[in-house]
Every structure is written in C-alpha cells, then in structure tokens.
Amino acid sequence: MPLFDFGSYVPVMNEFGIHWISVNLLLGAPPNHLKLAGGFTRAQFLLLIAEVQAKIDAAEGLENARQIAATLRDQLKAALRDRLSQFRAMLRALLAKTKYASAAPVLPDLSFGESRFMGPFNDAADLWGRINADITIAGFTPPLVIAGYTQATFVADIAAVRAAFVDLTTAENDKRLANHERDVLLATAREYMVQYRSAVEGLLGPNHPLTQTLPVLFAAAGSTPNAENLTGQWNPVTSQADFNWTPSTNPNLDSYQMRMCRSSTYDAATATVIGNFPPGTTSFSTIEGLENPGDVASYKLFVILTTGNEAGSNTVTITRP
What we know:
The protein is an alpha+beta fold and about 325 residues long. About 45% of the residues lie in helices and about 15% in strands. Strands 3, 4, 6, 7 and 8 form a 5-stranded antiparallel sheet that branches. It has a 3-stranded antiparallel sheet with strand order 1-2-5, with no helix packed on it. Helix 1 runs parallel beside helix 4 (about 150-205) and helix 2 packs antiparallel against helix 4. It starts with 8 loop residues before the first helix and ends with a strand.
C-alpha cells in the first residue's frame, strides 16, 4: 500500500515496522540491528508511528471543533437575520408613515463575511434605539417590542454572533496549526521510510528476498489513471447532495473515494474522506458538509488503482439553500 494521503501514513508505517522485525532477526543480536541516520532504531520508529497517529487524531478533533463552531455561528446568524426581518416588518406595520420606515437596513445574505454581514444589524440596533427614545411619534408609544423581544436582547444577540465569528476564527487557526504540525511530522516519517528502503537494499543487496518484499512507499510511476467527470447538485426532496460520475474503465481499478472540504474551494491538505465505493458504483448521496442552510462544501471523486495510483476528478462545490 503506497502513501496517497495523510490517512495512509500509519498503515504504511506499520508495514515498515513489521518488515523491520524480519531484517533485525536476520542481522542478529541487538547491537547488529538496523539503524538509520543518527542511530534511529525500530523502537524509535514505533514511537514515531504513535506520534503520527496522535497528530492525525488531534487534527481530526480540531476539525470537529471547527465544524461545531461553524454550525453554531451559522445558526446564530440565521436567527439574528430572522429578527432583523421581523424588525423591518414591524416598521412597515407600525411606523410606515414615519422617517424610520425608509431607514430600515437591507437584510444581508447569509453567505456574507463578518464585516458585510454584521453592518446592517448595527444599523438596526441604532435605529431601534432611536425609535425607543422618540416620544413624538404620532400614534405610537415607545419602546418598540416584538413579541416580548426587546432592543436590548437584539444588541445582546448581535454580540453573540460576533463572539461566534471570533470562536470560529480561533478554531480555524487551531486547525491550521495542527495541520502544519501533522504535515511536518509526516515529512519526517516519510524520510525515515525512504532511508529504511535504501538501508535494506544497501545491506542485503537488490536481489535479497527482504529487499524484494520491501513495503511500497510511492505508487508506481507512469500508471496514473484517468480522472472521471463528477457532477453533483443539492436535492431539495431528500435534503442531500447527489453525485454521479462516469465509470472508470481502468483494468486495475480498486475503488472510488469521495473527499470533501467544508469551503468553497477544494484543499487537499484539509480534505476528509467521506466515502469509499467498490467498482461499479456510479452515484453517491450525502449530507456531509451541508448540514445547515447556507453551508458550502467542495467535493472530489478519486479513482484508486490496485497499484496505489490515484487521480482526482473535477471539483464540485455545492451550497445548501
């Protein structure tokens, strides 16, 4: 099994660790055991496997935290937007002939970033405060209260949404740092595995059985499969994203794999596997990445061969209505 993404590292490293046992037995007592640069031993390699797994687990845990923060922010944004819609409706109903009606801010799109999204709510909170302080409005006695919902609560909800933006930014930064630390460690692991393959061949020769059975580190060159065309769209009936693709005709086809990023662009460094499918599969439906209205996610389908070679499809980005 060759390396193809960060999730493949621990299985491949375990193959090397098992192979290392046979080499050490052949070489004899511990003083003769195979060591890499700097006296690096199999025991240290096993510790490295555990460290790699811990970094991968930590990055996945931080991705969960990021998803939770993103979901909370989006829920609070949607609720606050509904309150602004109510406020605009009350202005039309109670203050249609006053100067305040035309001053109502426009509803922002849920996809807007923090600065563009929050601006209309600050305007609305200020306008609401002015209305509450105005005792000259004919036929209206302030304060303006919407079914028990007050301007003070509105201001508090605005602050909660701002805090949710901050929490999400913090979670994204934590995840980005964890990914970097993971990738640095993966590069170290990869270098030791390259050294191990060279060391075995150097000690035993290219024709020795243990050299011939060295674990594969990289997919064979020159056998990359053709990428398949992926299509996808949101299905309002099933509340899932539906995907279809053309079947691979490669005789070495092993499986298909769907990977996803919770963003409007696909980033291999942060992509997660959301499905593995046997040959013959040409469709897939999922809610992954699109759990809430306004969520945006990008998807790629990978063709994986028995040789370990793979090729990714075009990116399909879907926004849940």
